[in-house]
Amino acid sequence: MIDPQKMAQLKQQRSVRAVVPFLPIYKLQEGLEQRIAIHKDQPDETQINYSVLSVNKNHSAKLQQFVESLGGSVLAADKGTIGSRFSANLNTRQLLKVAQNSATLFIDELGDAQGEDIDDVKEPGGYNWLETVEGYAGQGVDPKYQGILHKASRPIVFSRYSGFSTAQPDASNLRGHLAQLVDPNGPYRAVVQTSSTDYAKTLDYTTWSADVDEVLFDSDLLKTQSQSNAGSQMSRPGAWSKNMVAVGGIKTYSTLSRSDDGWGNGASIGPASDDRIKPDLSGQYDNFDMIADGGGYNSRGGTSFSTPAVAGAFGIFFQMWADGVFDGGPGKQGAPEFRDVFDVRPHATTAKAMIIHSAFQYDFSGGDSDNLSRYGV
């Protein structure tokens, strides 16, 4: 809300084009207004799960109380959350009331949580040279089947089968999960996290995208997210987040030369609906040799695999940062300084900028070109 005097002053600013009411319809995902209209005269008491984004974190608790005063229910795990977003079960009448509340910024549906979207990776990326000549292979950061960080001292692995029935932790666990990873007194002390699963593909920046942005800003953790494999702009909502490192894919066709690389209608692409460049980076999309679920080895592809490969590049960067490569010379992880990767890590935004601006850039000749992914790691 804004008082009339301040509104008059705002309208007089030369940089302001218009000041208009923030109507409830502007707060609803496209299609939800029709759901409300259909049941205007014949109320439907069936409650559906919605994702509600408050104006900011300070409004979340009161908005949750308002939801419950209407007879709606806030998901138990979200009650008392310090974040701006929470999930609530609402019927159409309650949905309209929440949209009319001045503390509400937007409401949408998350949809169902969905599943997953190296030698050839290590050579063109320069990782073999870094390990052979300089010895960087992930020491201090969290074999033909060796990964980029195969010498990491404490890799942290979370499986979608680790106590959850869906393809990822429940949305309400995101803030607590990341807080554990960056707790300086905790067991993890992580510097990078990667994810190859997320909610249903969309063209929009959703409440989940906003939630991820807020959590990443608060935790200052570098996180990579697969863009997905739709061969179009349909992408994971987390990939549209502004603080996320969204990762696309380049088909290498099993050659080390970049001359035959291409998009090949595989990975999801950008730009975002607001014209931001997405994905932020791209990695190898095809022919990853790896350990198979049931034993032995197999070859797979997709942004589910290009994304952790790009995360590996960030892991090497954090190791090099701790060792002093960017502030006067390497060797600071050893005596007498013994610099710890977590303790001296740069901000996530610094790491993101460093990797993007040092990544290989493919030639781009327009929308008809097959090299539609802007950067490759």
Describe the structure in your own words:
- The chain has 2 domains: 20-108, Alpha-Beta Plaits; 113-376, 3-Layer(aba) Sandwich (Rossmann fold).
- It is built from 10 helices and 14 strands.
- The protein has helices at 4-11, 32-38, 57-69, 92-100, 119-122, 127-134, 174-181, 207-219, 303-323, 348-358; strands at 48-54, 73-74, 85-90, 104-108, 113-114, 192-195, 198-199, 222-226, 245-250, 281-284, 288-291, 297-300, 360-361, 375-376.
- The protein has a 4-stranded antiparallel sheet. Strands 6-8-9-10 form a 4-stranded parallel sheet.
| Percentage of residues in helical conformation | 25-40%
SSE ordering:
HHEHEEHEEHHHEEHEEEEEHHEE
Q: What is the number of helices?
A: 10
Structural class: alpha/beta
DSSP strand tally: 14
Please write the CATH class name of the largest domain.
Alpha Beta
* Oligomeric state: single chain
Which short descriptors sum up this protein?
Rossmann fold; 377 residues; alpha/beta; 2 domains; disordered C terminus; globular; four-stranded parallel sheet
Give the gist of this structure.
The protein has 377 residues and is α/β, with parallel strands linked by helices. Helices cover 27% and strands 15% of the residues. It has ten helices and 14 strands.
